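subagent[fold] <- orchestrator: predict structure for attached chain, return tokens only, no commentary.
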Amino acid sequence: KKIFSTFYLGMYQPLATLSFAVENKLFNLQTFWLRFDNLWLHLLNLCLVYWLTKRLFNRRLIALITATLFALFPLQVETVAWVSARSNLLSATFILSSLIAFTFYQKKQTPSFYSLTLILFFGSLLAKATGLFLPFILLALDYQQKRRFDKKVWLEKIPFFILALIFGWLATTGRVTTSLLPTADYYWLAKLFILPYPFIFYLSKLILPINLSPYYGFPVLANGWLPPIFYLSFLLWLILLIIVWRWRAQRTLVWLAGFYHLLILPTLPIGNFSAVLAADRYIYLAGLAWWWLFSWLFALALTKFKKAKIYLIAGLLIIVCLLAALSKNQAEIWSDNLSLWRDMVKDNPQSADIYSNAGNAESRRGNLDKALEYYNKALALKPNDAFIYNNIASALAQNNGDKLKAIDYYSQAIKLKSNEALFYYNRGLVEINIKQTKLGCQDLMTADQLGYKEAQEKIKQCQ
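subagent[fold] -> orchestrator:
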């Protein structure tokens, strides 16, 4: 009941949370099973992609190429390797299944396939809000399949729009009620150029999937101006929209453009800006639009240029092998926390938060000197961040560092953020450890008063 009636980290994703609860019950959250479940969900989605593509294009070759790209593309690694992206996988499973069911409904017009489409859409929303705009995708699919837009077509979409509105409200409410999601302060004109940027950014990564990162941060304004790439991206995005409009008679092109934009739209930093501008996991399903286009054009090229068939196939095999190699390399980056944060530091030298998290990862491995190096770089970028001081203090305390120095850093953190219970709790534990019991117990009681539940058990020892 709690899983389905609460938000977690500002998100409503009860099916994903439920899957973790089941894994915890059965396997005590053993790493192997967490990764295994993500992998088989990706393989299931691969089968669904093949099935959907076969129904849409009625060509096995197009389905095979699309499924291969979906399976092996480096951008997919984050969704599969990062266990917390389970919601992404589950949402994709239900969205793909709903689209397959709808293709059957389009052909047979039976209530059973209509109901199945609606139920699967509901399942996707319980997994993640990615499919919020599926009703519009279904309309685009109606257009691609040349259905007549009569009263029935619109009426049958009403339940889908009602569900989308309800879960859209839930998604918005969750973000508003959490303080964990940072906001980025940009004036309205800057936002106008920032919002379309991910559409072109993802396309660039689909064309050349290198320099991938788990973190793509927001741009820094220089005298009120964004970096030039944002203005160029806005222009390229407009050109792409104009091309689609001019070629709107090619219904498949309109369907692909709609599919791509409508699946990325819920991930855009609209309203409360999210922690990242873009993420590889956001393209997990939306990338299908471009893989469909590539596969369709490749199949067309094989028909048009029969003499070059052997060269086209050889070229495709080389591309697939390169993608597999890049994916393997990307998977190694995601193999553990330390590898991940070291890679992120390399790609984001101006992010204090990433330096701080890299310091945490080094500290957990017992690499105190390296951790302090990262923390100092974080402080240079963000000198008034209380959590960085807390992290430095914890690294010293946990790695046999100078305990008195650790207390000084905790005190600095408290000076900057005096209502953070965690800081008092951490300082209290160190004070008790070095026999400053009275001061330590006072800090623990302060932490308890500020709502830190773990402090209650430690206070008993003081009594």
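orchestrator: received. Logging for downstream: The radius of gyration is 25 Å. Residues 441 and 463 are 9 Å apart (CA to CA).
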